[in-house]
Design a protein that fits this description.
five-stranded antiparallel β-sheet; two-stranded antiparallel sheet; globular; binds ligand Y12; binds cobalt (II) ion
């Protein structure tokens, strides 16, 4: 399946994603194609809405100590729900849909997450650190929320100016 990543300020990123109810070959093809584009664009997390599919599916592949993302480390989280969260952690977040921009964001450090796998089996995991950060970032996408929405008013204004300039420069080259 040919996919492209939607970038801010595309309004489609604001859609609320729908629950996945059918776990068929077409859905598996979407997940496989999402993984291809995530890895090929140096992403570590991707929500289906970022490739124009407003369904509650997210992928994560956090690089290991050697900065590799082996396929066995891929997490496919379908219809994820955070049932418990605690602690606080700060991280310089980036997003494939907001290229070139990074900003420190505060998230919960520890999560309990309920989700379904690609075949619809329900699972529960406990996460910490970067995995928790990535999960919260991606679940926000399912609600149409971007990490730039969490910026202060003045920081957001600065971001909008810099981002517009980046898009203009990119168009020229
Ligand atoms: C911690 C914080 C946020 C997440 C969400 C997932 N974010 C990403 O996967 C970000 C990827 C990213 C990749 C970039 O590299 C390229 O585009 C080649 C990038 O660089 C530029 O835009 C120039 C920015 C973001 C997970 C964990
Ligand atoms: Co993102």
């Amino acid at each position: 399946m040919k996919l492209t990543i939607i970038e801010y300020p595309d309004k489609k990123l604001r859609l609320k994603s729908e629950e996945v109810k059918v776990f068929d070959a077409k859905f598996h093809d979407l997940l496989d194609s999402m993984n291809d584009i995530m890895i090929n664009t140096n992403g570590i997390g991707l929500a289906a809405i970022q490739v124009n599919h407003p369904v509650r599916a997210i992928l994560l592949n956090i690089p290991n100590e050697d900065n590799e993302q082996p396929p066995e480390n891929l997490l496919e989280l379908i219809n994820p729900v955070i049932t418990k969260s605690s602690g606080e952690i700060l991280y310089d977040e980036g997003c494939l849909s907001v290229p070139t921009f990074y900003e420190e964001t505060t998230r919960a450090e520890f999560l309990t997450l309920s989700y379904q796998d690609r075949d619809g089996n329900t699972k529960v995991i406990e996460t910490e650190g970067l995995v928790s950060i990535a999960i919260q970032h991606e679940i926000d996408h399912l609600e149409g929320i971007l990490f730039i929405d969490k910026l202060s008013y003045s920081r957001r204004k600065k971001f909008e100016k810099e981002y517009k300039r980046m898009l203009k420069e990119r168009k020229k080259s």
